[in-house]
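Anyone else keep sequences and structure tokens together like this?

Example one:
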Amino acid sequence: MPPSGVVHIVDDDRAVRESLGDLLESLHYKVALYGSALDFLKVELSDAPACLVLDVRLPGTSGLELQEYLTKINVGIPVILMTAFGDIPMSVRGMKLGAVDFLTKPIRDQDLLDAITAAIRKDIDRRDDNAHLAQLQERFALLTTRERQVMTLVASGLMNKQVASELSISEATVKMHRGSVMRKLGAKTAAMLVRMAEALQLQG
């Protein structure tokens, strides 16, 4: 079963976008159709897994310009680019911006469906990662200043004795703080603690 989600299709050719929409609706996807980048930008995106199937050549703002803009404003919706003029530089530029796939018209149904499945799975993973990070940040906010210092130094690779020296406290106190940090964050191992510090971008 492909993952469920919303597929946004931006193409100035009405026949193309409607035929793609009909195909996807027949497979129980929710579909939203737009004739231009501006039409898409007017809509408030629902908080659900989604992807954007985007024609490269559009009137006014091009597909690549829309993709660049969404990246700049940190809208993480995965993008699938499509074009009737599949030149390599355009493809490379789109992929560098993070496009999931680049499809040349006329698009084979299966190629489109495979790309959409991959894109929506990517969006689900991104949302899960963001939720886990938000949860971790909430737990981190509960740490005391000293616990944060100990966590940062431990995660940077220092031994308990070195952390104690760095903070001018006893090794026993370091162990106490370290244990408290691991309990509050739900870190079962030192390796897990290091990964959490990386996710939180703590600098030693």
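And example two:
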Amino acid sequence: MTSFGITNGPAPARLTVGIVSAGRVGTAIGAALERAGHVVVACSAVSDASRHRARTRLPETEILPVAEVAARSELLILAVPDAELPSLIAGLASTRAVPSRAIVAHTSGANGIGILDPLTEQGVVPLAIHPAMTFTGHDEDTVRLASACFGITAADDIGYAIAQSLVLEIGGEPVRVREDMRPLYHAALAHGSNHLVTLVVDAVAALRVALEGQELLGQELIGDDPNGLAERVLQPLLSAALDNALRRGPSALTGPVARGDSEAVATHLRVLEEVDPRIAAGYRALSLRSAQRAGATPELLEILEDRR
């Protein structure tokens, strides 16, 4: 295996790649690496869904047991849920299935390279390469990787050069994350992306009630189907709000909480309670955090803290 280059350096070596397992993340990264010229020679897939995903996204790749995938790999990608990673690594180490000097990269956001110690002791190059992206299991996953940042952690400059090269090859942007900062890095991403989904889904649910029976271009749009009237109303507003928040920070906050409009906030809480108390509870919690950022009046804080 030849040495890796980074920007303006020699082209990285073509690697034989193995993937454990053929989930949403693993197959998306595998497809992206193949587009960059690497060869995904084997992957593991247990469920019917993962086998179908492997055959669809990586049609030339053999589906093999984990130990055989590892044995064939110059670059082994461990793309399993965080809870499964320690046992997978322990099993690979106990069987010495991974060739020495192979590159082993996991895709966990919360973990650095310390979790790979059992394999590092056997001579592998340990990497943590986490795509800061959500995965749906559809074709857009691989496309989105080309515009994503990747949190990378390595043991030394050589490891960082390898990780950076792999990310740059598939069009992503490598971002170094310190080993001890991986949990906080992961918490921030989960807070922003996962809770955004909950927030949007709750907003859609409430808006559907408000717009029930209304029409769009003469066509009645009701029910729970996605891309309906509620989603169309929210989409430009949410897109603008996200763009403003990322470009302008806290100053992008608008609305009744930012204005200190206690009466409007109290009304919102009342009508949302009628739709679903859980949505009202989420509104209250996020409004309180918004009020704290905005330096709200004691009256508004009293409403949101439910002290009356």
